[in-house]
Structures are given as C-alpha cells and as structure tokens.
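notes to self, project folder thing:

trying the whole complex as one job this time. last attempt i did each chain seperately and stitching them together was a nightmare. two parts in total, labels are on each line so i dont mix them up again. if this works i'll redo the older ones the same way
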Amino acid sequence: MPDPIQFELVIPSDVAVAQDLSERIVAELEVRDYSRRDIFGARLTMEEALTNAIRHGNGSNPELEVFVRCEINDERMLVIVRDQGAGFAPGEVPDPTDDEGLLAEGGRGLLLMRAYMTRVEYNELGNQVTIERTRSTD
Amino acid sequence: MSDSRHIDLGEVGDVTIARFVDKKILDESVIQEVQNELIKLIEVDGRKKIVLNFDVVEFLSSAALGGFVRVNKIAKADGGKVALCNIRPEIMEVFKITQLHRIFTIVDDVESAISSF
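result (full assembly):
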C-alpha cells in the first residue's frame, strides 16, 4: 500500500481546477483500493464541496480562493475545504426530498455528501467543511 | 435531427431517444448544453416522448440532476413525458438518495422506456 499522504493547497475559484483536484484525490483512493462506492462517493462529494465553495461561498469571484487540506491513508480520507465567503447555515438548507424540494433544481449537494461520507461538519460560520470517509469494509 | 456534442439523437416512431455521450456529466457548460438541447426538442421540435439513455454515464453531479428536473418539468408542462433508462447501480443510488426516482419514470432499457409511453 502507498504511504499516507497529506497536502494543503490554495486553488482559485475555478471549477476546472477544482475538478483536477477532485480527480487527484480520487486517484489516491483508487491506488489504495478503496471500494467502488467509496470512490464514487468521494468524487461526488469533492465535486459538490468544491463547487459549493467556489459558486456559493466565493460567489465565483476570481479574486477569492479556496483552501484545501487533504489527508489520505489506508484507513480514511480527510478533506477540509474553506472558502472566503460569509458562510451559510447548513441547518437552514431546505429538505430536497420533500414535495417542494423534489421539484427544485438545486439544493441536493449537501444531502448527497452526507449520504456518502462518514462525517460532514461545518464550522460555526459555515465557510469551512470537514469531510471524512473511513474505508468501507464491504 | 442534429446532434449536440453531448447527446446522440435517434427516433423510434414518435419517440426521441437521447443517448448521452459523456461518461461524466458535471461541467456546468455541458449540463447547460444538454439541458438546452432537450428543452429545444420539447419546446421547438414539439417532441412529446423523450427517452434519456444513460448507458455510458458513469458519474453525474447534483447540478446535472437539477437539469433533468427542469427538463422533466418542462416536458410535463408541455403535455410530454420523459423516461430514463440504462442507469447504472451507482447512479441509481444517487436518484434514490435524492428521492428523484419518485418523480422520474426510470426503466431498465430503451425498449421498456418506449413501452412506458
């Protein structure tokens, strides 16, 4: 198995750069033989978390950046994503699975992140999310 | 019938089969193009029965789901119907987590989708 990795970097509010970073993280899980579901979920979660940081957190402002810290080993993936925005209240995101939410064109990202990850926690301000996925055993 | 870069279009009688070309549907620009193309089929070309064939799709984002929700709404408002087919298990799980399998017609294959209309 490869050695554990950890890195921190700052990316611009650019979804193409964010996608490259997502694929870099997914590749680290693939080489450590994480399950297919873990890998799918990690790709989806990174896409949602980084897109949220860029579009909603930073308002797609090219002058604002996204900070990412990542630690991956054989047992778990830990990623922290922080934007430079004013934050939000995750508890106030409408339920996308109720009758009204089903017809909404957005608002599903947080639900999906929580479904696939072991832990998704926001800081008090709401501009930083800590994402953890322990390796699935099935 | 012209194809976009992201959808291969075909017809079986009065049913339009739209087969996605991209393995991953996540780029905002791709999602917008796909959405626009499908809406054009409904609102301009007057297609009432549309099958979305996901056989090559391995990944999609929540933004892509939002695009399909919009297309479905527009089709219904226009008296049409959209059926989704050939969805891989991992993508189907996304539909179930988001409960979108309750509002979409989702079937196994193209033939079943055609029969669903």
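what i see at first glance: The CA atoms of residues 96 and 107 of chain A lie 6 Å apart.
need to look closer tmrw
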